[in-house]
Amino acid sequence: MNKRNSEIYQALQVMFPHAKVELNFSNHFELLVAVVLSAQTTDIAVNRVTPYLFKQYPTPAHLKAAELHEVEAIIQSIGLYRNKAKHIIELAKVIDEKYHGIVPNTREDLESLPGVGRKTTNVVLSNAFGIPAFAVDTHVSRVSVRLGLAKKGDSVLEIEKKLMKHFPESEWLKLHHQMIFFGRYHCLAKKPKCHVCPLFDLCKSEDKITDEKTS
């Protein structure tokens, strides 16, 4: 890790020392479902619907037997709920029948599940199984570009590869959450808190707000 990346890392450690996944879950299956549901919506919104969802369908066997309209009714307050309801019922069926009710722990198997892409796979691998991975969502993408860790126009996979190169493997899981927190609560998409940002001098964003910093 070079000096600049080390400064970014240290600043995030100070800002968010206890950063971790904000989705509520009690087992690997619940984590997987919650992450699938979290696409293009907030963790808060997901946490509002999952307690009842998991109470009604606590296992893959229960969820695979669910009626689509009943699952839709439970999660209708979150974005893309119709597709998500279909996906979680289908992935529950695969997990129950192909993997004997156990969430698989390999990238190939996870990415083969309905509604599960690379980001979801990375979240599950790292948070459930302790397998090093760097999940890149919209917050991580935005922060990476603004801090010069990636270039504007880089794909999600390109950003992921660059972050994995910039930082040691042992820090990927926590740093992933710290970058999400930084983007979610500080380096906001529309009104970033530049005037109180400890990374202000390292920021390379074209939209960096300088007037409040110097006033």
Number of separate helices: 12
CATH class placement of the largest domain: Mainly Alpha
Which H/E pattern describes the elements? Answer: HHHHHHHHHHHH
The class by helix and strand makeup works out as mainly alpha
Give the overall pLDDT as a whole number.
93
Overall 3D geometry? elongated
CATH superfamily of the largest domain: Hypothetical protein, domain 2
Summarize the biggest pleated sheet.
none
The CATH topology of the largest domain turns out to be Endonuclease III, domain 1
Low-confidence stretches: none
The total strand number stands at 0
Distance between the termini: 34 Å
CATH architecture classification of the largest domain: Orthogonal Bundle
How much is the radius of gyration in Å? 19 Å
Q: Count the domains.
A: 2
Portion in strands:
under 5%
Q: Give the % helix.
A: 55-70%
Task: Offer a quick outline of the entry.
The protein has 215 residues and is mainly alpha-helical.
Report on the structure:
By secondary structure, the chain is mainly α. It folds into two domains: 3-17 and 135-214, Endonuclease Iii, domain 2, CATH 1.10.1670; 28-129, Hypothetical protein, domain 2 (Endonuclease III, domain 1, Orthogonal Bundle). The protein has twelve helices and no strands. It has helices spanning 3-15, 28-37, 43-56, 60-64, 68-75, 81-98, 107-111, 118-129, 138-146, 156-166, 172-185, 211-214. Helix 2 runs antiparallel to helix 8 (118-129) and helix 5 packs across helix 6 (81-98). The longest helix has 18 residues, at 81-98. The chain is elongated.
